[in-house]
Amino acid sequence: SKRTAVFVSMVIFSSGMLIIRCMTIMILGLVAKSWVVAYVSLDLGLYLLIKVCRGDFWYWLPLDGIAGFFASLMSRFLTKIVTDFTSIIQFRHPQEVGGAYWSFSTVLTMVSLPCAIMIYKGNGGKHYVAEETARA
């Protein structure tokens, strides 16, 4: 049926995004841990900056002050991480990630793997990994 086809395609899409994101982090980790930290931090930082600039940082929970700030920060952080690794379509909702940023993040994830491969090759590829492993 059509529902099954949609469900299967959503699962395949989410699985593909998970594989791409994990491979990107793994390849950057082979080069240096600092590349992984930079990749994840810049991606998360850009998302939080956009949320703040759009006035959409505060989450819908009825909390004020420092509790509201940390609840919003944790909620945005966890939503972004889950969305990055799974691309769950329901997070396109405006009160979550938002449609435009969800689409941007999907494209960014797809582009990140070839970029990570180029960074890996630019740093010597297998020879670089072998030298670092021998030092450890």
Task: Walk me through the structure.
This protein is an all-alpha fold and 136 residues long. The chain is 79% helix and 0% strand. It contains five helices and no strands. It has helices at residues 2-31, 33-53, 65-86, 99-122, 126-135. Helix 1 (2-31) packs across helix 2 and helix 1 packs parallel to helix 4. It is flat. The model has no long low-confidence stretch (mean pLDDT 86).
Break the fold down into its secondary structure elements and pairings:
Blueprint: H1 2-31, H2 33-53, H3 65-86, H4 99-122, H5 126-135
Helix pairs in contact: 1-2, 1-4
Q: Averaged pLDDT, please?
A: 86
* Poorly predicted segments: none
Number of strands: 0
The outline comes out as: flat
Distance between the termini: 54 Å
Percentage of residues in helical conformation: over 70%
Major β-sheet annotation: none
Given helix and strand content, the structural type is mainly alpha
Rg from Cα = 18 Å
Order of helices and strands: HHHHH
Strand content: under 5%
The total count of helices amounts to: 5
Summed up:
With 136 residues, the chain is mainly alpha-helical. Helices cover 79% and strands 0% of the residues. The protein starts with a helix and ends with a helix.
Observed structural traits:
mainly alpha
